[in-house]
Fold each of these.
Amino acid sequence: MKRLIATSAAALLAVTAGLALATAAGAAECPSGEFCVWQDANFGGQRANWSGDDGWWESWISDTDSSWANHGISGPGIKDHVQVYENAWQGGSMTICLAPGQEVGYNGAANDRGDSHIWSTGC
Amino acid sequence: MVRATSRTTFRARRVLLAAAASVWLAGCATVTPDGPGPGGVPVGKAAQDELLKSAEHRLVVDCLDSRGLTLTARPRAPDEDRVLQAALFGAGPRELSVTLATGATVTANDDGCLATARHRLYGDQRRWFRAQVTVDNLRAEAQARMSADPAHRAALARWTRCASPPGRPRSDRPDPAVAARCARETGLEDVRARLEAAELVTVRTLRRDELTTYRQLRDRALRRAAELSATTHPKKGSTHS
């Protein structure tokens, strides 16, 4: 099955521009059901994790966020997407919206800018 | 769709499930212009979202079940949770990757139960991942473009002066009531509403290919989800038919 996926994926890769292959192994270390933010890129350094919303991140992680992972568990009626904002109380611009299982190891534009996040049913 | 009728060992059942999934995957490796599927696809977006989430959840639960794992709300010990994380989100390399115009490179594994469920629903994990991540972040992309607009910069400067009166240190996190009042009084609120709407139109034009793919694969997933809910046994967590 794995080979089958890899074969069809390779064929599709040829027609899908902009896709890059990441090399890091395994999902980031972030408890299931939670949203995690790390001070360093590639899920390094101190980690903050939440199962709920936080309108004002603690000072040690606010504006020092460098990588993010949504390990929310989906289900009917469950808010499983995470929206990250550059200001407290979901103010300013939304820097990223992640569905469950999605991770961002680094983002030059959103690096050290997050101040709050909210779980939602979509983006 | 997985019709494993095995009553033998757990391992045999797992092999059968994998085989059934392979047949299914082989069937969807080629994109065929399916006609309208059987009924059961709701019209409203909210109901469609629920149908997709229910189907995905069901596939994930079945997949975890085949690995001897269950999704429960009870707290798990760290080691136990790591096993669940690996099964759910994947343990191999992060093979799905898309770099957005905002600079973020969003990645995901393609080997966990979640990825397997999405592959079954959407038919093509890579195309769906790219379309979903792009479409989910259209607003973020529009807002990033908006931030570069001189009118927005000017309004934001007025807002900062309003929210940080002279003689007091600039606050990144003013009181929510003060922030909202200043957004109204300085015109930042209006500028944002106007610019964001315009930038969203631009961004939706720029990303029209991804939007088209998003709609196509979502329609396909809706048909699969409707089939799944119509053909599988109603008993939760069961893949037998």
Amino acid sequence: MYDKTVDKPLLLNNEKKKTFKLGHDFRTQFELGIMLWPSILHIFIFVIIPLFGYIIAFKDYDPVSGVAGIFSSAWNGWNNFMIMFNSYDFIPMLRNTIGMNLLASFVSIPVTLFFALFLNEITSSKFKSFVQTATYLPHFISWVIYGGLFVTLLRSDGAVNYILKQLHLVNKPIPFLSDPSFFWGIATVTSLLKDLGWGAILYLAAIAGVDMALYESATIDGAGRFKKMFYITIPCIKPTLMIMIIFAVSGILNNNFTQIYVFQNSLNLPTSQVIDTYVYQFGLQQLQFNVATAIQLMKSVFALILLWGANSLSKKMTQSGLF
Amino acid sequence: MVQNGVRSSRTFQIVNISIMVILVFLAVYPFFFSIINSLNDGTDLRRGPVLLWPRVFRFDSWEKVLSDSSIIKAGMITLSRTIIVTVIQIFNTALFTYAFSRPYLKYKKFYVAVGFASMYFPGALIPTFLLYNWLGIYDTYWVYITPILVGSFFNVIIFNANYKAIPESLFESAKMDGANEFRIFFSIVLPLSKSVIAAISVFVAVWIWNDYGTTLFFTQNTDLQTIQYYILKLIMSNAGADQVSSAASQNADITKLINQTGIGRTTAETIQLAAMVIASIPMIIMYPFTQKFFIKGVMLGSVKG
């Protein structure tokens, strides 16, 4: 091993640079391996091995049979998927999942973008950073606490109904949490409020990267504040915007379980049951392991297709994508 | 013409500042609301919530929460888990990314493939549940630690972008001088990546502190509750009063805590609000301090990654 350090200058002097490449010796590779392999092994155990568990979606699996049962249980083809499709819960669940995600994306992407654009127009940098710091706050609070806060505020004897009553706007308290017609709205507004400040960071970073000369020449040409926003800033940050849209499209089947579970109760279930909560309820609480896995397998496959599709469409249209 | 422009610009600034003030209010007021209500007398609160300042100031709910043994235990579990996992995971990610970022690493494609696979193949609930059972970590403290000792590959990408800012000549000269890979990592790379380490540590710590899914999915023992799960049960048992109660609300120590506090200076509601405020204090204290670090981290990740 010691020889290597002696060899190096010799090799370099003999103009044999190409035969010796720095770091290609066994010892270096071995050390790098020590750094890499614990993580690789961990990924194999906790990410790759569970992928094999997806096969119980095609099996007649009995939870009692344990891990061995995954392989020994009988195949039953597409049966679990048929049970899922024929379930009365399936269509409402799919509608809630996609509907809530579409609503959230349609609201949060433009609102966050405009928040960033308007925040960028604030001239006082102290006030700007104060606004940023204050609006990050909810992002660091757990959904249990943030959602719980809104549960408290929206209860029939909560602050919102109290204020509405004091203002004589309502006679009876509005059942925000038990009436299914409010659920999508509550989910959208709370997730918007929670991540508005945080989501704006990405846009602000992109806006900061726009060439100042463009604004200067636009000002000389007589463009106003809004013209500059629409014809310079937005086109310049299109790659960032596209990435956000790709994420939104590929995550359309992926609800925020941590959020929805906090607001969910048996009365608002018709509009609050989504794939993720259904998998938990059906799988872990009712022990229908194979059907729950079938739902999740279908969801994962569609999510991968959507991610790939959104990415290639974005590449074609704007020459920018995620990968 | 010019004056008109100035006037419209001033109007815009006023409107804009007003919008920002409203947004700040919307972000901050819910917390202020929970603080003042948790500090109000419980019986008095039944008359209606306080909106600006406690009507009858009482510290009793806070005292009760801070002296409740099951809340303290849940807090300790959450705190210990957060510290252990953050330290190991960040160290591990930094080390992994160092090796991963070396231009002379062989079979790099393999590591890239494994990393991306871990990012894009989502873990399914049931197979994960079966795996944890098989490994024997289901319903033990280890379920809070073991599965997340290795972080997301996203963090590797962010670390990688930051390592690229270190001049390659530094590594080359260290290597020429005979320093081994660990030496280079500890004495060159780690000291130069303090800001990304701080940034990602905050992300990871916040995520773990706020996590309740692990408790919900993979534990049953009430001795293993995390603080977030405990508060979730408090919320559900309070909400359950006028709704059909959920499984999580039926829990012995929650019932004990609420029954004990049903009358007098504290109520189930003030206890819940006090617990919520106390559980968010660590995150609220932490985030403004590290703000400049994590903005740097996010920006590097988004621009270069």
